[in-house]
Write a structure and sequence with these properties.
single chain; globular; alpha/beta; 5 helices; 6-stranded mixed sheet
Amino acid sequence: MSAEQEFLNSFVKTFSKTEKIEILHNNCRSKKNNPDLKFRWNDAIWFVEAKISTNDDKYNAVHKLFGELLKMTGIKTDEKNIKYGLLIDNKEFFSSHFRCIDFQIFTEFGKLIPIEKIFVYENGNIEQYTWNEILTD
């Protein structure tokens, strides 16, 4: 099992302790018509892309996540009330790299998708941020 899949599994286990969620898909290796994580929560279907900073490809992961987020918007579904999210393991690592992007461009990208939440799962704790908050908190 990959480190990213272990991260996803751990997040799901922790998140489901405090939130009522229904897992619809949990597989970071799936390439066809599914995000890394898909779940039902608070009357919405969440499509979530996960990225970790602990592998050899961590710097590329920052760049790749933008393409993955764009691809998620093209997933065909009959579901209503789709929300998009990003799950990361290290707020400081990712936000420091996000800050290298012009703020207006970063903000506009967050409107284009739009990312409802960034879930930060670090040290067994889950924090939630908006797209722009990840830069300022």
